[in-house]
Every structure is written in structure tokens, then in C-alpha cells.
Amino acid sequence: MSENGIPIHKVSTISSALTAKYQNTIIKTMFRVNTSKSAGAKSATNHTTNKLEQTAENTFSRALDTSRETVTSRQYNKKDKILVICGPTATGKTRFGLDLAKKLNGEIVSADSRQVYTGRNIVTGKDLPKNIQCSVSNIQWRDRYLKYYEIGGIKIWLYDIVEQGEEFSVALWRECAQLVIEDIRQRGGLPIVVGGTGLYIKSLTQNLADISVSRNLKLRQELQGKNVNYLFNYLKQRDPVRAQNLNESDRRNPRRLVRAIEIASQNAKPQKDTPFNPERSILDILQIGLTAPKEELYRRVDKRVDNRIAAGAAGEDSILSANPQLWKLQEKKIVRQQITWFKKQPSISWFDITLENWQPEAEDIVGKWYNNPDAKKG
To answer: What angle do CA 187, 190, 191 make, to 5 degrees?
Structure first.
């Protein structure tokens, strides 16, 4: 529904108590890859990890169901809001997020799948001041404490979660995001989720039943090198409904077919992605999308790559820096994928950043949403 013409999407989140309960169930589950382990040891570790994660998920679900009455009876206030700023790369999302954070006592929660890894700050566009150091928070996630950077007094979360080469997924990002969002809210701040990784954002705003299905390394090895016809027929035998629901793009994508087989092999039932149950919702999410004509986005990408090379990207990735045209083509491919993805997502208020008054208009919508004491939860 909408409030004052503003698309508002409701989302369920977990309270501090539920966060602790969910986290403590899996806190001892280590996910760092140990290349020195034997294949048998890895298999046993994966089995144990999967079992622990399933136990944690079940515990979390039961606790959430039990707490429904408590959650829905809370008084609605500004602490029950999350702002999302999304869209394709090179649209100035982080800068706009920082501007709003200063005005609304906000903190940035990064939703970028490349920036979760430590290092490569220039190549991945973290745009951090030179020589800035991260701080370690008291928010514990699994075997580590989450870090943040502070720019102009504004905290930026979920950079540098894992090291290069470590396993990471949208399910793990969602775990981190929920912990950080709850911490910001408990301190009276506004969580501002900023990024272009659409699936990360969707994991917060919709029910994605399959994202917690763990990777099956043995199955992936068996399917490695198989063509798309083989993979699709394999999936069709395992789960005809899931196979039928795949679009043409997914049917031609070996990686997505393998993931679908992986999910089907763990008996995950096909389920349509739907908004969270309003009975469980206590948070209002406003989604602001920044975009521009494709030609302008391409121009901005070219400029960003040139600037990153000038800033010393060669020290992080000599191959990319030595092939700027290849780098630019890769970034433009990401732009096209992001445009296609976000076109299909509901409840986003879009602003063309090439128009003169886009920012004051966007800020006006955000301000009305943030200061509206009569926002409904149904």
C-alpha cells in the first residue's frame, strides 16, 4: 500500500532477543575455508555446518512465530523504519545515503556483494578516504566481530566482512544485515541500506525460501562441465515444477541451473517470493531508486574506471588496470544486469539523477515518510 503517495513495503525483522537466540545457535559454526583439510574432513565439516545452520533456522522460525503477538503490539515509531537506496552502479547512491544520514541520524548498511571482501578498496569502489582505518564493533557474527568505517561522523557497515577466498552468500549477508540493522535501531538511528546487489536487498524485503539452502560441494563437482541441456533435464527429473518455473535466461545459465538442482536435492519446496506476512511486520521500508539513461551510466562508468586507475588500482589488480577497456566492459555488463533486475522489483520510487531537481524531490519524499507519525502497518 502507499502512504501520502509513498510506496511503503513492510518487512519482518528480528528483535534483540531473537537475534541473540538465532546467533547463539550457530555462533560456533565456522565457515572459513581450510584448504589443508582432506576431502573426507571437508565433507564431514560441511555436513555438521549444514545441520547446525538448519537447527538455527528452525529455532529462529519457532521463536519468531512465538513472538508474533509481542511484535505486532509494539507502538509504531521512527525506530520502525528502514530506508533503502538502490539502483545501478555509478549513480551516486552512497553519496546520497551519506547526505541523508547526516540529516536523519542514519547509518549506512552496504548491500554490495563485491565490497563484503577485505581489500581491493579502489577496484570495488568503496570510495574511502586515504589511510582511513576500520573500527571493530561489539556486534558478534559467528566467529568474528563486524567492522565499520566512519566518514564525516557517519558509520558505514558491512564492508570487509570476510577475507578474499572465503565462502559468502546472500544468506550470510542477510544474517549480518539483520544484526547491524537491529543494533542501529536500538541506538535510535535510521538504517540506510545502500547498494546495487539486488538479491541482497530482496532478501530483506521479501521471503526468499531458498537462500538458506547450503552449497553442496560434492554435487557441484559432479555437475561441473555439464552443458545446459543436461542440467535442465537433471533438474526436471528432480523437481519438474521448479524446472517449469525457470525463465529462459535461467535455463541457459549453468550456474543458476546447478543452484536449482542443489535446492531441489535438499527437498526445498518451490515457493514464490512474496512479501513478508504483515502480521509479523513491524518495520516500514521506503525504497528509493537512483537511475539515469543507459548512455549516461556508461559515460559515468568510463570516468569511474579512469579515476580508479589514476588512484592506484594497479596495486590491487594489475590485470584489470592494464586492460581498462575490458574493465569498462565488465562494469557496463553489471549495469545492464542491474537495470534488468531492478525493473522487476516492486515498491521502488525512481529518480533520474540527470534531472535538475531529483535530489530535493527525493529528500522531500524521504522526509515525509520519516516524519509521518500516522504510517499504517497493514
So the answer is: 100
Pairing assessment for the beta strands 206-207 and 274-275 based on DSSP bridges:
antiparallel
Listed residue (308, 300, 306) closest to 122, CA to CA: 308
Hey, which bits of the chain come out as E strands?
Answer: 2-3, 6-7, 9-11, 81-86, 106-110, 135-141, 144-151, 154-157, 190-195, 206-207, 274-275, 283-291, 348-352
Cβ atoms of 14 and 60 within 8 Å: the answer is: yes
Q: If one looks up domain 2-12+81-208+281-371 in CATH, what number appears? A: 3.40.50.300
Question: For residues 245 and 247, what is the distance between their CA atoms, to the nearest angstrom?
Answer: 6
State the pLDDT confidence band at 267, using cuts at 50, 70 and 90: low
Residue that the C-alpha cell 524446472 belongs to: 243
Radius of gyration of the chain (CA): 21
pLDDT per residue over 106-129, tens digit each? 999 999 999 999 999 999 999 999
Length of the chain: 378
Mean per-residue pLDDT over the chain, rounded: 79
Instruction: Evaluate whether 361 touches 265 at the Cβ level (below 8 Å).
Output: no
Predicted pLDDT at 212: 61
User: CA-CA distance, 38 to 88, in Å (whole number)?
Assistant: 42
DSSP secondary structure letters along 25-40? HHTT------TTS-HH
Q: Which three cell numbers stand for residue 263?
A: 535446492
| Phi-psi map region of 82: left, alpha, beta (phi>0 left; psi -120 to 50 alpha) | beta
CA angle, residues 148, 150, 156, in degrees to nearest 5:
50
Q: What is the DSSP string of 174-193?
A: HHHHHHHHHHHHHTT-EEEE
**pLDDT range class, residue 104, cuts 50, 70, 90:** very high
Give the residue-averaged pLDDT of 73-101.
86
255-270 average pLDDT score: 76
More confident residue, 264 or 371: 371
